[in-house]
Write a structure and sequence with these properties.
The structure is a single chain. This protein is mainly α and 254 residues long. It folds into 2 domains: 132 residues, Four Helix Bundle (Hemerythrin (Met), subunit A) (Up-down Bundle); 90 residues, no CATH class. It contains 8 helices and 2 strands. A hairpin with a 2-residue loop joins β1 and β2.
Length: 254
């Protein structure tokens, strides 16, 4: 019996999600601008436009949450992604309530719901940006670039780590697990980062490759939610996996 491979669907949702993600944000901001702008100008808001925007916002928010749930396994787990999920659910629920409140004669309930939805959107947007661009994505452009870190004394140019392991991790892991973008709090491109581990625990256990997430996550089936790297990213070859195993068996020397 053939196993079901969800990777084609993941690829479709992966391409559609950025569009679905930004539609409810734009519609919510547009709705709030009309509603609160009218209040500031002491004028009657355009009820028809507000109702239409609320309905479209609720629909696209539900579609965005649905596509996000399909792709959730690609992001792993941790405080940031769980907070993002909660805020996204809250925003979608509040936009649905706004679509209902828009038909009430009183504008008070709608404005309260819109304010709460904007707050949830702010949290969801910040945590989403942290997952994609790193936790310091807001202030990073304003900070001076750090000087290149000097290699550890133990990471000699001809060591197995420098010659064999580091190039594998640089090719397959650097996109998401580097010092300026440490998804899950994990850095895999420096010796210090490997030693420190991430939100899910140690990256490796010396002399225990079968208990080391650095290797075991790579050996999971591509369709598994915990497989790393994500199935649309460069994958380590069988020879590279064997290199990682031998390095771990040797005690993971740097």
């Amino acid at each position: 019996m053939l196993a079901y491979d969800p990777s084609p669907w993941l690829a479709v949702f992966g391409r559609a999600h950025p569009v679905l993600l930004h539609l409810p944000i734009g519609l919510l901001v547009g709705t709030a601008t009309l509603e609160f702008g009218a209040a500031l100008l002491r004028r009657e808001p355009p009820r028809g436009a507000v109702r239409a925007l609320c309905a479209l916002g609720a629909l696209t928010a539900l579609l965005s949450v649905g596509s996000g749930l399909v792709l959730a396994g690609e992001r792993g787990s941790g405080w940031t992604i769980e907070t993002h999920k909660f805020a996204a659910f809250a925003q979608a629920a509040l936009m649905l309530l706004a679509a209902l409140a828009a038909w009430k004669p009183s504008r008070g309930p709608l404005r309260v719901v819109l304010a709460l939805a904007l707050a949830a959107m702010t949290v969801a947007g910040h945590t989403g940006g942290s997952m994609v661009h790193g936790s310091d994505f807001l202030l990073a452009p304003l900070q001076p670039k750090p000087a290149a870190a000097e290699p550890l004394p133990s990471a000699t140019p001809d060591s197995p780590y420098t010659a064999l392991v580091a190039p594998i991790l640089e090719r397959t892991c650097a996109k998401c697990h580097r010092p300026d973008k440490a998804k899950g709090g994990l850095v895999l491109t420096t010796a210090d980062g490997l030693r420190a581990g991430g939100e899910t625990g140690p990256a490796f256990i010396a002399r225990k490759p079968d208990a080391s997430l650095l290797l075991t996550r790579c050996l999971l089936p591509l369709a598994d939610d915990d497989h790393m790297p994500p199935n649309d990213e460069p994958q380590p070859t069988a020879a590279e996996l064997q290199t990682l195993r031998l390095w771990l068996l040797a005690g993971a020397p740097f």
